[in-house]
Prior knowledge:
The protein is α+β, with helices and mostly antiparallel strands. 48% of the residues lie in helices and 15% in strands. The protein folds into 2 domains: 7-12 and 132-216, no CATH class; 13-125, no CATH class.
Amino acid sequence: MPEPTEFIVKDCALVTLATGVRAQSLTALREGLLGVPADSVYHHFWGGLLGTRFDDPEFNNDFAAWVRHALHDLPLAERLAVIDPAQFVDAEALRQEVLEVVEQRLDELDTPLWAPRDRQFSFVRGQVVVFDTGRRLSEAHELVQVLPQLSPGSVFYHVIDARSRAPQSCDDFSSWLRELPDSHDTLLARLADIDPYFVTLAELRQQYIDVITSHFGGASS
């Protein structure tokens, strides 16, 4: 019988790369959305978790924030703000949803909206740089001790970035639990109910702590 797979605890940093594509109007934003790689759209939803964008929790993706503060289009900003990227199968599907919302708004407007020259939207991409922390887990209950110690980068890598890597579009913890000999179906179902969007990485980590410590009968830290 093969040995259970160890869980390798990793950390990461996010490097921002310019695409060279910019938009000053809502029409130009639409053209940019059509032309940039889908992973750029993905970054503009998730990348701010490891940055400083989330000082405006009401408009917590880059498109919604720019539309609100540069174009001053509150109706469109609100429509963009409620898009949950965790509900889409991949970045391309997310791109199509953003495009649909923007195009619908363009159909409603008599004149395309423009931002000041110094408030243009810059499309960027994110590259994840991964680090091995040297920590290994061999049993599921060890997550109770490890989760409170995870850095924001570790939470991002194992929960957010993992969804784009795993065939099941789930976090690394769930993928690992499925490989262990003991059944953790109840725990897996509870983890699957966690929506990683609309919260900070610290809040997301606490949700995982609460679910996992409750499952194993421990006390969260």
